[in-house]
Fold this protein.
Amino acid sequence: MTAPRVALLGIPHDASSSFLRGAAGAPGAIREALWTEAGNSWTEGGIDLREAPLEDEGDLWFVDGESGEEARGRIEGAVERIAASGRRPLLLGGDHSITYPALRGFRPRHPRLTVVHLDAHPDLYDEFEGDRYSHACPFARVMEEGLADRLVQVGIRTINGHQREQARRFGVEVIEMKDWREGHPLGLEGPVYLSLDLDVLEPGLAPGISHREPGGMTVRQVLSIIQGIEAPLVGADLVELNPANDGTGISAAVAAKLVKEIVGRMLT
Ligand SMILES: [Mn+2]
C-alpha cells in the first residue's frame, strides 16, 4: 500500500442552513488559523504539516441562485475526483448539508465504510422546513442510499421523538452525550470517514457556530477521539464553523487544531 496523502478542499456552502448563514466563510478562516505564525505546523503526533503529503485544492465555487441540485452535484464530483486520485479528502465546510453529496462521491471507492459523526445534533430529519437537503437532514439521506455500512453518532444531545425513530429505522448507533464517557470504545473496523460538526463541543469553547447547544465536549476530548480512531481514517469533513458568530476568532483556532490532528491521523 502506498503512503497516504491528504487533499484539503474548502466547501464554502451555507445555503442549506436553517437558522444562520455564515458557515460559507469558514474555509478561509480555518486556513488562516491553521497557518498562523502564532503557532507551529506540527501535529501532536510529530508530523510537520508544512512537510507532509498534504495538498490544498482551494475552495469549490458556488453561484448565487443556482439550484441545490447543481451545488450538490459539484460537491459530489469534486470529492469523487479526489478519491479517484488516491488521496484522502478532508473537506472544510460549509454547513452540514455537504456531507451527503460528499459521501455520494466518496462511497464508490469504499465498499466498506463506517461513518463516525460527532455532533450535538443527529441531523436525521426526513425533511426540515420543507427541505430534504437541509443541514438537519444529511444522515437520513446517507442511510437511505446506503452510503455507510455503519453510522456511529457521538455527542448527541438534541434528539427528539422523530429522530429517535429515524435512528431506529436506519440502525444508527447513537452514543448520546449523557451516556458518553472518555475512552468509550467505538469498535471501529475497516475504513472510517469522520464527519465533525464543531457544535459537538461545549459552545463556550467554540461559540462561532450557528446552533449553540450547551453540555458538550471539551476540545481535548474531541482530540482524544480523533487520535484514538483505531482504524484507517480515509476521509473527513469539519463543518458548521460560523466566522460571523466568532468575535474573538477562538472557534477558528479550535477548528484549525482539529484539522491539524485529523490530518495527522489520516497520515498515520
Ligand atoms: Mn450540529
Remarks:
- The first strand starts at residue 6 and ends at 11.
